[in-house]
Each structure stands twice: as C-alpha cells, then as structure tokens.
Design goal:
Elements: H1 2-20, E1 27-28, H2 35-45, H3 48-62, H4 65-76, H5 85-97, E2 101-105, E3 111-115, E4 124-129, E5 145-147, E6 150-152, H6 156-175, E7 184-189, H7 197-206, E8 218-221, E9 229-231, E10 237-246, H8 268-282, H9 286-295, E11 300-301, E12 305-314, E13 324-333, H10 336-355, E14 364-373, H11 388-401, E15 409-411, H12 419-424, E16 429-433, E17 436-440, E18 443-446, E19 454-455, E20 462-463, E21 472-474, H13 478-493
Parallel strand pairs: 4-7, 4-8, 8-16, 9-15
Antiparallel strand pairs: 1-11, 2-3, 3-7, 5-6, 6-21, 9-16, 10-13, 10-14, 12-13, 17-18, 19-20
Length: 497
C-alpha cells in the first residue's frame, strides 16, 4: 500500500507541475537602435586622449610582455575560493601602483579602488572575479607559464583573464591621461565559484548610498573575450534537490522465496543507478541546447536546463545490500518553468524505475527540493533589454568590429557569474559578450576564446576551460573585451569638459 500510495503521489505531483507551468519559452537577443550612442562614441574616439589610449592598446598587443607578466603574477598569487587573501593583497598592490584612490580590501577580500571623475556623470564599476575553484591550499606554489600563445594556470581563463583585461583598461586610461566626468571604479570580487559572496557584499555595502542604478550607475564584468555586445541578465534560477530511494528488506526477509539471499536480487543502488542514467539522458538539455542554439543562428536562446548530480550517498552497510541511497541535484535554468518541469521529470523517472522491481521487493522514493534562489522577474523599473549602459556597450562593439560583420546585441537572459548576487542585492550587473579575437592592426577573427578538450598539434598540450589544473587562456583573447570596455566606459560616463 505504501508503494502504491507514493507512486500515486508522484503521478499527482507530475500532473500538477505540468499543468501549473507553461512550456519553456525562447528568449530573444535584442538589437536596439544605437545610432545616437554610436554618434556619441565617434566624437569620443576622435579626441586626442582617446586616440592615444587606443594606440596604447595596439602597442600592448604588438609587445604583450608587460601584460603577460601581470597575468603570470596574478596566477602565482594563488586565490582559491574562500581563501583569497594572497591574491587580494597582490591586486591591492597593483591598484595602488596604478594610482587608484580609496583602495581597500573589504571583509570578503574584495579589492576596490576608484579612478575619480569630475563628478558630473554616472558611476561605472568595472569588475572581474579573482577567486578560482579550490584545487589545493593557497600556500602551494602555482608556477604559471606561457606556451602556445597561452598562459597556463588554474583559473587562467576563469577569471584571471578578466582581471588582466580590467587592468589593461586602467593602464590605457592612465597612459593617455583620460579625464572622465563620472567615476570609474575598479573591483575584483571573491567567492564567485561558490555563491558569489564577494559580489553580494560589494552591492550590500554600496547600494544605494555610493551606487544607485536609478542615477545610471552600473556594474560591468569582464569574463574573457568580448566585442559583440553585452549580457544583462541575472542567470536567475538555482534549485537544489535530493532524491532518496528505499528498498527496505532485510537479507533473509521471510517474504522472499525460501532460501533466497537478497544480496543477489535488485536493490536500492541498482534503482538509483538506473535513475541517474535516465535523468542524465532525459532531463539535462546539454546536447539539445548546443544544437538548438547553433541552428537558430544565435538569434534566440532556448530555455534550457543545466543539471549536475553533485553528491551520491547511501547508508553505511557491511556485507549486505543498501536499503537506502540518495543523489543530490543542482538544477539551473533561466526559466523557472523549466526547473519545475525537471523536478516533475525526476519524480516520474524514479516512479517508473521503482515500478520495474519485482512485487516482492517494495521500492519507494522521496523527493525534496531543499533550496531555491533567483530573481526571475529582475529589478522593478530596470529594463534589462534596453537601457542606456547596454546600448553604449552595443554601440562600442559595432564601431570596433562592425566592419567585420558584427551586429551588437543585448542578451537579457544570460549574465555573468556574479550577476545573480548583484541583482538579488538590488543592483543590475552586466557582462561583456562575444568571441571576437582581436590580433591588432585591424586583423580580427571569430574564435572560441579557449577550446575544451583539444590537443595542440605541435606540442600535445591539452587546452581546457572549466575548473581544471590544465586550464589556460589565449593571450590574444585579452583585447576585444578590453577595447570594447575602454570605448564603452569613457562614452558612458562621459569625458570631462
């Protein structure tokens, strides 16, 4: 009776989920009219100071030794998530060297400095996160190196390259003595790899006293190549859930046929294995997302689900099959209905797997959503698809790379890793987007920025992104986002009269 009742409950739950939430929708990439912003940026680029700033970046591309050394230095000052003090102090030193004011390290080891304007424009916070996944203690040396046109170290492309891009903008502004109307803040955040505690602390401490989006202030994050526009979404929906399976029979239960040893019959681990395989194949949208997005010509983005099976556990056993086992899921999507649909699918699969067991072996499950977070509705009054900062970022991409076929867009669904924390604390945040590789001297190509799981033909070094000791970042990936940010930043906060 208990097994039947629980399966009936699972069917009812799936029915409620299916009827309460509509099918996932596809979000459009926006191409706003930025003709007025492009005209403003042309005037900015025609000034002697900005011409010198752009020439400085071209010189840096031709001779990137200083930039690469800075990248290596940040790598070697290891900053694992939750223990970023060495890297925070290293970046603090760089901020002081480059003349920022009010430089400080806050309680979460964020590093913040200000390049003051004249006070007559909005404030812009350029930021990147400087933590990496905790692969080993911060005291163990990293010894980053350069090979194949890449910098190799944990976190090289996620997101030390963003810190380097941000510093490159600062160096160009200083070299050309660009005086802006609004303040430009430079900040590196901690904890992005686990909950974005640094971004949350930064916004909590500064909004709405020092920074307020209603006055035009905005956060923009570097995270690798750019040159094609901006993402303005908050990556909103995060759920965690646990599925527990039960086959509670003793080894010599009298209900079993005489003389049968239950160790050789199906049990909980068998059921959980089947559930895991089916969930991975039927619920996670990885392949569908990749194919659909390419087929759509990158004009729409499917409302897809990311699913990670983070932890598998069972009860302690000795010479007997487990009667209970569980798996914890990490579910993420930009559409709340897609997450709820996934919850229903997981329960359906668990019920179907249990129904395959012999009648003499009761199988049941319990499914619990343990945490929910996100801000799917965004910030009331802030238009993620069409706002002044996004239009200026798109205009900068068009001016720099329009002749190479770029049509700048705003993606109001995709966002940076720290965007959700900033949004939930009340402050919009954006990220430069695109895969433009700017080689300097007008030579531009589209590229991946970093390729996953491929081998260098000449040296056999495995190039990876993600959180891996072999992670590396292309040196050429620095400048598309850095140039776009430089033009956008000065145009957005304004040149001092």
């Amino acid at each position: 009776m208990r097994r039947v009742a629980q399966q009936q409950f699972a069917c009812l739950a799936v029915f409620l989920v299916a009827t309460a939430f509509p099918p996932p929708v596809r979000a459009q990439l926006h191409t706003p009219d930025v003709s007025a912003e492009e005209a403003d940026l042309r005037r900015v680029l025609a000034t002697p100071a900005m011409r010198e700033a752009m020439r400085f970046m071209e010189r840096e591309q031709a001779h990137p030794d200083d930039v690469v050394q800075e990248w290596l230095g940040i790598c070697n000052a290891y900053g694992p998530e939750g223990d970023e003090i060495y890297r925070s102090r290293h970046i603090y030193k760089l901020f002081r060297i480059y003349g920022l004011e009010d430089v400080h390290i806050d309680e979460e080891w964020n590093v913040i400095g200000v390049r003051p304007g004249t006070g007559s424009g909005p404030k812009l916070v350029l930021n990147a996160h400087h933590d990496v996944v905790n692969l080993w203690p911060k005291d163990q040396p990293i010894e980053a190196f350069v090979a194949d046109g890449r910098v190799w170290c944990p976190g090289a492309s996620d997101d030390i390259v963003g810190v380097v891009q941000m510093l490159e903008v600062l160096r160009a502004l200083n070299q050309a003595r660009v005086q802006t109307a609004g303040d430009i803040w430079f900040a590196t955040f901690t904890g992005e790899e686990k909950g974005s505690r640094g971004a949350s602390m930064f916004v909590t401490e500064n909004y709405p006293i020092n920074l307020d989006w209603r006055r035009g202030d905005i956060l923009v994050q570097f995270h690798g190549p750019g040159g094609e526009g901006i993402t303005s979404g908050s990556d909103p929906i995060y759920n965690q859930s646990t599925l527990r399976l039960f086959t509670p029979f003793e080894r010599n239960d009298p209900a079993l046929p005489g003389g049968v040893d239950r160790r050789w019959l199906p049990h909980t681990v068998d059921a959980l294995a089947k559930v895991i395989v089916r969930v991975r194949e039927e619920v996670w949208d990885r392949r569908t997302a990749e194919v659909s997005f390419r087929a759509l010509g990158q004009t729409t983005r499917p409302a897809v689900l990311y699913l990670n099976m983070a932890k598998i556990t069972g009860i302690p056993i000795m010479n007997a099959p487990a009667s209970e086992a569980s798996v914890t899921f990490d579910l993420r999507s930009k559409d709340g209905s897609r997450v709820e649909q996934a919850h229903g699918d997981i329960m359906r699969i668990a019920g179907e797997v249990c129904a395959e067991f012999p009648k003499t072996i009761p199988c049941s499950y319990r499914y619990q959503v343990t945490s929910r977070s996100g801000l799917p509705e965004g910030i009331h009054g802030f238009d993620k698809a069409n706002n002044r900062a996004a239009r200026f970022a798109v205009a900068a991409a068009n001016l720099l790379y329009g002749q190479h076929g770029v049509r700048g867009t705003v993606d109001p669904e995709q966002g940076c890793g720290d965007c959700i924390a900033a949004y939930m604390a009340g402050m919009p945040a954006m990220s430069l987007r695109g895969q433009i590789l700017d080689h300097g001297g007008g030579r531009v190509e589209r590229g991946s920025g970093a390729q996953v799981g491929t081998l260098e033909s000449a040296h056999g070094r495995r190039r990876t992104t993600g959180h891996n000791v072999t992670q590396s970042g292309e040196i050429v990936s620095i400048w598309s986002a850095a140039k776009q940010a430089l033009v956008f930043a000065v145009g957005y906060v304004g040149l001092a009269p």
